[in-house]
Design goal:
Distance between the termini: 38 Å
Number of strands: 9
Radius of gyration: 17 Å
CATH superfamily of the domain at 6-36 and 48-114: Nucleic acid-binding proteins
Strand content: over 45%
CATH topology of the domain at 6-36 and 48-114: OB fold (Dihydrolipoamide Acetyltransferase, E2P)
Largest sheet: 5 strands, mixed, barrel
CATH class of the domain at 6-36 and 48-114: Mainly Beta
Shape: globular
Helix content: under 10%
CATH architecture of the domain at 6-36 and 48-114: Beta Barrel
Length: about 140
């Protein structure tokens, strides 16, 4: 038996990149930051906060949802699998990319802080303060709007 499952909660680092293939299939790419908090070790050593950046890939209906509703600064919960691929860049150097192929997403930024004209600011609104439920979407779901 084997398992390839990833679960992340983090903040979107830039506006999603969306494209449509010749077949009409939507593909969205998002950079998500997860943060390890700063802490002090027993010996007094300060360990600073550290951000890890993840490349997320969304397909089909999920990508269309990302295109419409996800913006820089939004907090997301995603589930998916790790996938790596190799390519050769313009200088002929072989590179490897590790991506998360997302198959489930929950938008954690409250609707009241979402700004359709631009990025949201989740630092000023706590999820508990919002009466709006979060939006949960998976590959097989239609947007709940």
């Amino acid at each position: 038996m084997s398992l390839n499952k990833v679960m992340l909660i983090g903040n979107v680092g830039q506006e999603p990149t969306v494209r449509y293939l010749d077949t009409g299939v939507c593909v969205a790419s998002v950079r998500l930051a997860t943060t390890d908090r700063a802490f002090t070790m027993r010996d007094g050593t300060q360990v600073p906060e550290r951000a890890e950046w993840h490349s997320l890939i969304f397909w089909d209906k999920l990508a269309e949802t990302v295109e419409k509703y996800v913006h820089k600064g939004d907090k997301l919960y995603v589930e998916g699998k790790i996938q790596s691929r190799n390519y050769t860049d313009k200088q002929g150097i072989s590179r490897q990319v590790i991506e998360i192929m997302v198959n489930n997403m929950e938008m954690l930024t409250p609707k009241s802080s979402a700004n359709p004209a631009g990025p949201s600011n989740p630092t000023n609104v706590s999820p508990a303060a919002s009466p709006q439920p979060s939006m949960r979407v998976s590959e097989s779901d239609e947007p709940p709007f």
